[in-house]
Amino acid sequence: MANTPYASLTRRGLGLLALATAATPAFAAGKQRIVTMLGDSITAGYGLPSRDAVPAQLEQELNHMGANVRVRAAGVSGDTSAGGLARVDFSVQADSDLCIVALGGNDLLQGLDPRATRGNIDRIIGRLQARHIPVVLAGLRAPPVIGRGYVRDFDGLYPALAAQHRVPLYPNLLAGVMGDRRLLQPDGIHPNAAGAQIIARKLAPTVAQALAARR
User: Fold this and answer.
1) pLDDT for 154-199, tens place per residue?
2) Which of 4, 33, 125, 144 is most buried, with most CB under 10 Å away?
């Protein structure tokens, strides 16, 4: 191709296309894969029809990306990390290709010791890995009003566990939603349908990358 401005522009466009393609997870055609969301009321879709809850919206986002996924909701409203640990073996079924662990919000609301939360999630991840089920860990951020020490310990438990178990971390499940009344139900805690859509859209790339890595 001659070295003309048009040719230079074309080469640049091809380069950008290659970069975009490299950043997009590649999914092989085949059977539908199962992603399980182990969590609390956010995962259970508190106050929402099931079609508007985070699991259904995450499924839609992933399938728009070509993932051929079914997202299975395994959330229980009010569940703490201890509750998730107690039921992980039967709530996360054997056919799961990936489990998103999204627990700790109720521990935070109840002011439970972050060391106990960390211990419970540590054991949850360990049990899933022993069953050869890959994990994506979804963290949370504590509000500063709780106190500097508690915030440090709570916020730090998720990156520490992700590094310990070598699992992908999505740092804050409620990023872009918490604190915005337009995206929350009247209780100021749970996302409305628009908020759930934002959570799903932001979470989807991390999940897609984990699925692609498993393939």
Assistant:
1) 999 999 999 999 999 999 999 999 999 999 999 999 999 999 999 9
2) 125
Q: What is the C-alpha to C-alpha distance for residues 154 and 113, in angstroms, rounded to an integer? A: 8
Q: For residues 118 and 120, give the distance between their C-alpha atoms in angstroms, rounded to a whole number.
A: 5
User: Which residue segments constitute the domains of the chain, with CATH numbers given?
Assistant: 28-214 (3.40.50.1110)
Q: What is d(CA 61, CA 67) in angstroms, rounded to the nearest whole number?
A: 9
Point out the residues that are catalytic: 41, 187, 190
The pTM of this model reads 0.86
**Bridge partners of residue 72, in order along the sequence:** 36
> Greatest CA span in the chain, whole angstroms?
68
Question: How many other C-beta atoms lie within 10 A of the C-beta of residue 205?
Answer: 16
